[in-house]
């Protein structure tokens, strides 16, 4: 299952945005209002919970400066990645699209598609406000 957020413009250079997304502590400020838990568990990993959903732990999997930041689920129960595809627009502006990619059975995919779509759109919207 692959879901894409809208591409949003961020008032940061591609390098700055890549650095921002590489620091997992910064994700706390991007989380939706219905976040019930956010905790940095290692320098490159955090766990978060949304009301009504199980907690999810993500870790930094790959960084291709300044164009790509990949976070992946630590647990095998919900195997997925969340990729930030960054493009430089100008010296002080870049754009980013978030791509959720996971392998789920049809029943699970049907259950999580709507909340995950809403989640990545919220992250994108909050990135736009930076």
TrEMBL record:
SUPFAM superfamilies: Bet v1-like. Gene3D superfamilies: 3.30.530.20. This is Carbon monoxide dehydrogenase subunit G.
């Amino acid at each position: 299952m692959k879901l894409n957020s809208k591409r949003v413009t961020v008032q940061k250079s591609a390098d700055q945005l890549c650095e921002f997304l590489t620091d997992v502590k910064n994700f706390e400020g991007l989380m939706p209002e219905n976040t019930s838990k956010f905790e940095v568990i290692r320098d490159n990993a955090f766990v978060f919970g949304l009301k009504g959903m199980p907690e999810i732990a993500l870790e930094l999997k790959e960084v291709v400066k300044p164009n790509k930041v990949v976070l992946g689920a630590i647990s095998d129960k919900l195997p997925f990645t969340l990729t930030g595809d960054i493009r430089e627009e100008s010296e002080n502006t870049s754009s980013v699209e978030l791509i959720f990619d996971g392998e789920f059975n049809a029943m699970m995919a049907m259950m999580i598609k709507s909340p995950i779509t809403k989640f990545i759109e919220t992250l994108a919207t909050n990135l736009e406000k930076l």
